[in-house]
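#lab-general

N.A. 3:47 PM
ok so I finally got the sequence cleaned up, no stray characters, all 242 residues accounted for. can someone with queue access submit it? mine expired

B.Y. 3:52 PM
send it over

N.A. 3:53 PM
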Amino acid sequence: MVKETFRLIFRNARLYLPLVLIGVVVALLNMGASMDTLIVFFVLTFLFAWLMTLFFTRHILNGDKVWFRDGLYNAATPMVSSLLIFLLIAVECLPVMLTVIGWSAAMETELFNNMFYGSVFVLVAVLMVMLTMWLVAGNVMALIAVTTPVMYPMRALSNVRKMMRGKRALVMVRLLVIMVMSVACEMVAVLPVVMVGIIFNVDVSIAGIFATTIAGGFMTIFAAVYLYLNYREMIGMKGKKK
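B.Y. 4:20 PM
back already:
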């Protein structure tokens, strides 16, 4: 499925590449902006890129001739519905957020100096991460289902939960693949910039923003295409028009 995702993206780079460039332009234009402004622009840009990627992918797999302007004008229709499901998934990520906060507190209090308490904390952290992945796996495919015509958030969630019976473990593996790919992509994009800054003692902040945005944009596209292909496979539509 990963190879199929890469193949689809690179064969249709004329549609997907502009999304990355738009993200870079937005990031560079908002340098020095307040944190609130950055968050708003990040959320809007991410949602826009996500929905356009799904729009392009659906039409490509249907065999339709699609142009970038088609996605620009039509892809944002389910934005509100998608945002609601993203908010639900954000709530389901609370165990991981609490784990990160607890990890920071444990580092400050030198909890890991005690092998027993440190081991218990690590075990709890792993369980919290698995719990979060289990919760998210139950609803993440609703992000795909809700973009289909005449689909509402609650109906999408209900349909996906029925479809997910006995398949959560598979989706958890898919999410793990996306996480690993995200880390690898960020490292490939950012590490060379950091190394140049260290070796030549120069300011690479702009280059760092450029590299991070490109990696983030590519991973948004990869995640959307990858999950869409898995969604089609799960509903038995692989190789068919949907």
